[in-house]
Design brief:
about 180 residues; alpha+beta; 4-stranded antiparallel β-sheet; 7 helices; 6 strands; about 55% helix
């Protein structure tokens, strides 16, 4: 039983705090559901653009632009895109966004890759450099391909070449840039 006015005030204060906590949790859940819906739209976009486990660089860059427009943070990407059940190309999009747009420190991204059990996933990037003229003769186009682990992209083991090609996209310097899934043994 309640004995006095002081205990009633304490009880009211407790109930108000409890109501505030419930409102805060509801707000958090609503925000998380909103971000999940936005991530699902990016996932659907990428899955629609996939052509036999490959993605054109223009679609790749469009997905990154969508994440930027939606103002995804590192935790959003970590929870919604750096997951084992998703396609490795979606993992790569999340990694690239965190590294180049958000500029998250490499060790944080590496830990997120380990936490999502995707550190050993591989992608292959293929591109073509246009040939040039030399002494009146046309030198052939150069075809290039690099297969890398996601972790190597973060630690710089690939000398930054793959992310540079992906960042620039199809320009006069790089033609026909595509990202492929590398099937693990």
């Amino acid at each position: 039983m309640i004995k006095g006015v002081d205990e009633i005030l304490v009880l009211i204060s407790y109930l108000e705090k409890l109501e505030f906590d419930l409102d805060w949790r509801g707000f958090y859940v609503k925000q998380h559901e909103e971000k999940k819906g936005q991530a699902d739209s990016v996932i659907n976009l990428v899955e629609q653009c996939l052509q036999s486990d490959s993605l054109k660089v223009i679609d790749y860059l469009h997905a990154i632009k969508c994440l930027k427009t939606m103002q995804f943070g590192f935790r959003d990407v970590q929870m919604l895109l750096l997951k084992q059940k998703l396609n490795v190309l979606l993992n790569l999009i999340g990694l690239h966004y965190c590294l180049n747009i958000l500029q998250v420190p490499a060790f944080c991204i590496t830990e997120a890759l380990r936490g999502g059990k995707i550190v050993d996933r591989r992608v292959c990037v293929k591109w073509r450099r246009p040939g040039r003229w030399f002494n009146g003769f046309r030198i052939r186009d150069g075809y290039h391909s690099r297969c890398v682990y996601l972790e190597d992209l973060v630690t710089g083991e690939d000398d930054g070449e793959v992310l540079t090609v992906l960042e620039r996209g199809a320009t006069c310097e790089f033609l026909r840039v595509q990202v492929f899934v590398v099937n693990s043994p």
